[in-house]
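Q: Focus on the shape:
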Amino acid sequence: MRQGQASGTDSSAATRVVLLGPQRYERTLRPVADELFPEGPVATVTAGWQEWERDDKALDRDLDGRSVNLELYRRAEQVFLADQELAKAHRHLQTRLRLLKKAYHTRLELAYRAWEAVDRLPGDDGVLGPEREAAFQAIRELDARHIDRVSELRAEFERRLRPTERDGVARQRAEMEKILRGSVAVVIEGGHVPVLLNRFHIFGLT
């Protein structure tokens, strides 16, 4: 959940980010919303729910009927339907990202096993301590590399396709920017996180 400034307020005010736990069993959003932004429209993102994006009645109740769903998933599907070149390139990107993820998981499993094995070795901590740290550092470096590679593939896609400059995306962005300018906060629900992130990337909202 991201709280920004309502239109016409002091632009120097700090942006606040609040992370809430799962809402399935205990709804904690409403008291937070009542405290931090009790009035005004609230933009919501439920794209992680995919085709159930508009099934947001509980979320709207928590926001006292003030929610305005950005409908990122629906908007993206409309864009892909009208822009087959972008749709094809995006599917290809997702295929490449899945392959990269498989390679990452394979390497991560081996690196984790190596760290676990070194961590369990009995003996002088003065000798083994640095080796344990080195084994764990290999996992950190693998994570960092994976993040860099994902960013590299996405950057290549964006340089080649320039999605935010394409007519369909630009129209949707303009509509969303109008909603966001009039909102006092943005509430982002969970769901399928890769889908959610993909929609943010397509519309240049990251």
User: Anything to note?
Assistant: Residues 5-12 have pLDDT under 50 and may be disordered.
